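Notes from the 1:1 (GR / supervisor)

We went over the backlog. Supervisor wanted to see one worked example end to end before approving the batch request, so GR pasted a single chain during the call. The sequence is below; no edits were made to it. Supervisor asked that the structure be written out right there so they could see what the output format looks like.
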Amino acid sequence: MKGNGKKLAVFVMMVALAIFMSVATASADGQKYRKTLHGEYAFIGSGACTLAPGGFNPDFTPVNPTIASMGPNLWEGVYTFNHNGKGKMETRQCYNEGPNAMFPYSSGCARLSWEFEYEMDGGGITFTFIPGTYYLEYIEGPNVGVIPPITPPNGIVFEKPWTGRISPDGKNLFVFYGGPFKFDLPAPPPFGVFGVICNGVHQGIRTKVDVDE
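Structure output shown during the call:
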């Protein structure tokens, strides 16, 4: 019995040590990538968004489908990553509208930005939106002067985190908005909200190594 007890104790110690080493390795790996992820990344990207006056149902279908609209968009901007695990996305987004939009078949551009926190898991990145930091201002097209800018602080919240990857040398960034990526914008009565669902990808390259935190 004593021999079996000693064998069991040794086995438990070996399992505990293996778990500790795997956790420590994962943590060190994440820290290695965290050290490479800093500075500014110029990016371009594309995607599509559905705008639904009155919002979306739980299955992501518009509450009022006859007046919902969808269209493609293009992005050009900068991601900034600080050493403290926070950052900011700033972009010029240009879009095309569908037949049900406020201005059917129109085009335009807007300035967009928001702040985020990020966590590393090896080369994987998980982004979490910092509430109240969303900014939107139309700068070209028929929405200019019709839809006022949305400036921080505000009550806009992204419903889910989004993801990305960084190359081992820290020079190349990939960001994916999907799952789907959903949030609500304020809307006048009787709708209350404009539900927004977007899917898109961004690809960036590091253009500045260090930034102020």
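Supervisor's comment: Residues 37-208 form a domain with the Porin fold (CATH 2.40.160).
Batch request approved.
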